[in-house]
Amino acid sequence: MKKNTIYTTIHSYYIQTNAYSKNRYILSIIIATLGLIVGNQQVAHSQQAVQWTQYMYNQTSFNPAYVGSKEGINLEGAFRAQWLGLEGRPLTQSIGVHLPIPLFRSGFGVNVVNDMLGAARNTSIYINYAYRLRLGTGSTLAIGLKAGVIQHNLNGSELRTPSGTYIDGGIDHNDNLIPINSDSYFTPDLGLGVHLTIGRGYAGVAVQHLLEPSSTLIQYKRHIFVNGGYDFFIGNNIVLSPSLLFKSDLQNHQADVGAWLTYDNTFKAGAAFRGLQPDSFDAVALMAGVHIGRQWMLTYSYDIGISDLRSFISGSHEIVIHYQLKNILPAKGGKTRYNPRFL
């Protein structure tokens, strides 16, 4: 297959399966990492949302109302290496902490995400706050707000244009939209979310990039996330936990569905599927995990590609680590006592 066919397939894959890339900016980055020559196109004003297979264990990354929904101090880390075998593939890291504040009927958290794709890198940091209203026994409605800043960096030295001049290490793209060296821009950002817990089930709706912020290089489109899940107890030792995540920029749509089986609150196994319609079918994922003691949880997933890109990649890897320090925060004054335990 010719190289131009390869990058056309990759570009089509990004539009159809992730449904967030719009034009030639992402395409130019991928072509550059393959060592190809790109057309003299304008830098695009669009950016995709971060992809997670284990979205059910990383909900703070898209819904601020989730913070404070778990007891104690929760530390969460995630790493994703997407499309192994493809140079310049997406690499994503996320780390965050959140906890409930019963005294103020609230939850609070901080989340940092670093997302790299070829010559581009986005690093975001958000402060998340949720007001939590108890509706009854086992039922809580939370309304959340996230505020933060995004740093977008483009390393123009990795890009090439047909009309550019590249002699003896010199770089002249002949395109004032593409930087010669590394160029960074900072953009403030806001998001909203709602999270409802009823017994063993939950549902949430969130909006990212609420005001569609922009910089010289990027226009961040507004994204909507809808998710939900439920825990079914099978006998005394097995829990089945199906879940769903739907995401949309109001023009393109994608969905993830998955399910975990947990045995004796220790061993975990699951599977997931990403796709909404035939031209957006992306991957089937196998998942496994373990609870270590009552504080740690480690999970892993491997995506098996089923899109047109499957001939050029060897899958995607994702690791999620949770640490929970159980605490008891009294509603009215008093001392704080910590009791380690993982739910």
| Series of H and E elements | HHEEEEEEEEEEEEEEEEE
Q: How many structural domains are formed by the residues?
A: 1
What is the CATH topology classification name?
A: Porin
Helix content: under 10%
Could you walk me through the main structural features you see in this protein, from its secondary elements to its overall organization?
With 343 residues, the protein is mostly beta strands. The protein has a single domain (51-157, 180-338), classed as Porin, CATH 2.40.160.40. It is 8% helix and 48% strand. It has helices at residues 3-18, 24-33, and strands spanning 73-81, 91-101, 106-117, 120-136, 139-155, 182-198, 201-208, 223-230, 232-234, 238-248, 253-263, 267-274, 283-292, 296-305, 316-325, 327-328, 337-338. The strands form two sheets. It has a 14-stranded antiparallel beta barrel with strand order 1-2-3-4-5-6-7-8-10-11-12-13-14-15. Strands 16-17 form a two-stranded antiparallel sheet. Strand 6 and strand 7 form a beta hairpin. Helix 1 (3-18) crosses helix 2 (24-33). The longest helix is centred in the N-terminal third of the chain and has 16 residues, at 3-18. It starts with a helix and ends in a 5-residue tail after the last strand.
